[in-house]
């Protein structure tokens, strides 16, 4: 048996096509143009790449986009003042501050300064709290993307044993919470494993679905999973460089081994990654509709 590939590229494309229709309708029927600002402090190569991709995607969907590039020595006060400016800018529905920030800036203070109604990353405590309670809010983009991948691939989650590897605030904790809720791609029994879990293999071998988000290349091997498992691999690990100078990437799951036992599996690259930016765009459109009183 060889697993069916869950292509984040294809699913993200389908969602973007749906969003394009919604954005056009908002403009034509309601004179509403969703707006997103991305703020980058410093010149971290990965961050530059991410922010550029986000701005490019927004423009392709018809979303108004601004990109602000600030030097690495920008003060915390200046950054907070800029966020306050965009909090009060009616053209902007979503504010994204690219992480990580330089060490002299308090990330939590910056994220908390963003108006919760414009927090399209879903990191503000107000949105985190609403997520935990199952209320309408901006869901964090990567976990939201995972839910869409499972649902659109026809993976049954209700009553299934789900094991999440990793307890980060960005992926592990929110996806564990979301999958135990009464919702599409939810109603699961969830176990969250981390660095202090005594016998991780015990949990992964009984899992119907494994979501790996630990940042360790090829950590999960075939002997750690059961036949027919569904694998969602969030890991993006650089393990080398090709002769052409392109990064060689690996996930947290040993793809070549595990795909022979799994029923579904996401590749790296081309799996969860493309979904994150797409869900950011979906949140931005949601923010615009909320601001216009349409939802």
What does this structure look like?
The protein is an alpha/beta fold. It has two domains: 88 residues, 3-Layer(aba) Sandwich (Rossmann fold), CATH 3.40.50; 133 residues, NAD(P)-binding Rossmann-like Domain (Rossmann fold), CATH 3.40.50. 40% of the residues lie in helices and 17% in strands. It is built from ten helices and eleven strands. The strands form three sheets. The protein has a six-stranded parallel β-sheet with strand order 1-11-8-7-5-6. A three-stranded parallel β-sheet has the order 3-2-4, with helices on both faces. A two-stranded antiparallel ribbon has the order 9-10. Helix 2 links the parallel strand 2 and strand 3. Helix 1 runs parallel beside helix 10, helix 6 packs across helix 7 and helix 6 packs across helix 10. The radius of gyration is 19 Å and the shape is globular.
Compact description:
The protein has about 300 residues and is of the alpha/beta class. About 40% of the residues lie in helices and about 15% in strands.
